[in-house]
Amino acid sequence: MGHAMASGSHDPVTGRQTTGHEWNGIEELDSPVPRVVLFFLAVTAVFAVGYWILMPAWPTGLSYTKGLLGIDQRQLVTRQVEDAAAARSALTNRIATEDFVSLAADDQVMTYVRDSGRTLFADACSACHGAGGKGGPGFPDLKGGSSLWGSDAATIAETIRVGINSAHPDTRVSQMLAFGRDGILERDAVLAASAYVRSLSGQKLTNVEQGRVETGRTVFAESCASCHGAAGKGQPDLGAPDLTDTRWIYGGDAQSVHASIYSGRQGQMPAWEGRLTPAEIKLLALYVGTLGGERP
Predict the structure, then answer these.
(1) Dihedral, CA atoms, 150, 151, 152, 158, nearest 10 degrees?
(2) Mean pLDDT for each consecutive 10-residue tract of the chain (296 residues)?
(3) Domains observed in the chain
(4) N or C of the chain: less Cβ packing under 10 Å?
């Protein structure tokens, strides 16, 4: 049990004065507060008083003490924001007025494009094309260079401006016929064309598909080459994709290719003119050109 001892006794080991409190034979020493603690307490108090005098510190009701130094963090931040806005404004003006070639060759501009374009792309484009621009079923892979009308910055900017199959009067128009659904081609011809199209990109075909390739070549020449070209390389002026590469908007497997030929395709992209400024459209076009790791 604990009890109070007579004050003024000394600890036989340390020789220090005790407080007079004891618990099960353990006595409490009356040790002084360490000087280092007192030192830092004093320094803290001096610092606090000095801060109150020099810096804005105490509320006074409708205002606050301004301090002898007159430092105003709000004004400082406001100036920093204004300076940043001025720097952005200069770059934005350059993007709005200069041609794509000179802009793409300027490292300062392209650094700004990569920083600001990422946010603008996330707001306007990522819902369809994905955060990294890799696209998905029905949406082109911008990172892989899947562009129907061309991959240069000026062409991309025009596509962003007018859209594809949009309500814009100058919209790009892209329409693939439903060859099977509308009875343009018989079932066997659709299957043959599908096999031939898959062969163009070097895909591994089944024995049945391989047997349809020659017939598909004829069907392709008669029904598909007018848009996709005799060799299937596509025609950017018509928005017809290259069928010989490995980049597919709707999928390159047998089922997807058959569905494209049978039911047709008509992708849509909104027109951004009026919703984005001309400078923002150009910035986006430049940014899209960087997604594949190459300059536009």
Answers:
(1) 60
(2) 55 72 77 89 95 89 86 82 78 90 92 91 91 86 80 92 94 92 96 96 93 96 94 90 90 94 92 94 93 59
(3) 35-64 (no CATH), 74-171+269-289 (1.10.760.10), 187-263 (1.10.760.10)
(4) N
